[in-house]
Amino acid sequence: MKKSIASLLSGTVALTLAGAAYAAPVSSAEQAHTRGGCPASIAETHDYDKDGLSDSCDLTVFLVKNDERGGLSLELAPGARVDSMMIADISNQTQEAVYWSLELEGPRGVTARQQDGWVTPGDSQSISLDIDLSSVEPGALLEQSVTLKVGNEVHHIPLAIAVKNAEARTLAGTCNYSVYLDSIKVVTGQGGLEGDAEVELFTSLQTPTGNVANDWPSAGGYMRIAVGATKYINIFMSSASVATGAHVNLPVNYSIREDDDTSGDDWGSASGSLSFDCTSGTSTAYSTTRVQDDSGGKYDVILRSTWSGN
Known about the structure:
This protein is mainly β. The protein has two domains: 44-167, Immunoglobulin-like (Sandwich), CATH 2.60.40.10; 170-310, Immunoglobulin-like. It contains one helix and 21 strands. It has one helix at 31-34, and strands spanning 4-9, 12-17, 20-25, 59-63, 72-76, 81-92, 98-105, 110-112, 116-119, 123-132, 141-150, 153-163, 174-188, 197-207, 210-216, 223-225, 230-243, 246-258, 266-278, 281-292, 298-309. The protein has a five-stranded mixed sheet with strand order 5-12-11-7-9, with no helix packed on it. Strands 14, 15, 16, 18 and 19 form a five-stranded antiparallel sheet that branches. Strands 4-6-10-8 form a four-stranded antiparallel sheet, with no helix packed on it. The protein starts with a strand and ends with a strand.
């Protein structure tokens, strides 16, 4: 059944989705926003997309990007697999459900975790890709064009994946591991008028070959995250090989900037480490670090390692 907005009658937004019905009441006070206004009771002025409406009562698409093209550039090992890498987040703070869809051009080795869907009022939806390089030759450069359509908005996201050249055949007694920035959770908000947190996360991972840095979701940008909510980042950070059974300890430093629209930004930092024994077989280890900012906001950042040893 084709997904469509079925009706907008008598202060109720009705949505027909694959045979199921969703209805959200719209009060007379809130109907002003349905016509493009923003309730006067909302004091914050965060406006990520610069459309004149606060993020608190707007449809906002937050993009994850790390290069000058406004897209994502990755370097991965041959045969690497990354599940559910977040590329965008849709925050729907309007009174109407919004339909989104994802299109991939030249999607060799890359698939959408979910092709399309609806974001209901007051909710958010992370948009993610799965990457599987098992059938991609070493040394290849994959350039993808990702198109995200959200309501009437169209976002083009360049994606480039450089596949490293093949290394020597893995010797017996070798364990290969990869490290990912897994997720961030807003544990405690700052109170006051803002409610949700506008978060920029800086990660500095110390590896045997040097420091690896990541600025998420983008340099100078932020991701809106509700108190109690978790955003699953799943961005690749580093990989290495060690002797099977070796103990690995990777120190990590985090800094968080909470974008403040009424005064100076709030900052917090903390250090942690990811430790595991790189054993035979396959397994996963996690490390959680609590970061607290200047105004009392608390965040849990998770680093993850997966490995395979023989």
